[in-house]
Amino acid sequence: MEESGLANTKQALKRHRQSLKARSRNRMIKSHIKNAVIDVRKALEAKDIETARSALQKATAVYDKAATRSVVHWRNASRHISRLTQAVNKLEQ
Q: Is the per-residue pLDDT at 51 higher than 90?
């Protein structure tokens, strides 16, 4: 673990360590979101309705979990879920 050049107190050093862990967790969750959305988009391009539905269900779960943990704002998650759902529903028609 790297030492911070600005943190001089024990409290500041601990807070810096915590922020590094949180950053790592948040980056991991955001990459899960991106991968889930890519899966939905690929299924939409292939016009595979069943795969798109299952990928959408997974993407919705990933977005909801990220919103619950405040990695993304809940309105942001809701908006993206809504747009993906509209795209899947459009494919079904």
A: yes
Integer CA distances (angstroms), 22 to 19, 35, 47, 80, in order:
5, 20, 38, 23
Superfamily of the domain at 10-92: Ribosomal protein S20 (1.20.58.110)
Q: State the Cα–Cα distance between residues 66 and 74, nearest whole angstrom.
A: 8
The answer to whether 59 touches 39, Cβ cutoff 8 Å, is yes
- Predicted TM-score (pTM) of this structure: 0.85
Backbone φ and ψ of 69, nearest 5°: -90, 5
**How many whole angstroms separate alpha carbon 84 and alpha carbon 7?**
43
Residue 25 Cα to chain centre, angstroms: 11
Number of alpha carbons in the 13 Å side-chain half-sphere of residue 9: 3
CA-CA distance, 85 to 93, in Å (whole number)? 13
Chain-centre distance for alpha carbon 28? 8
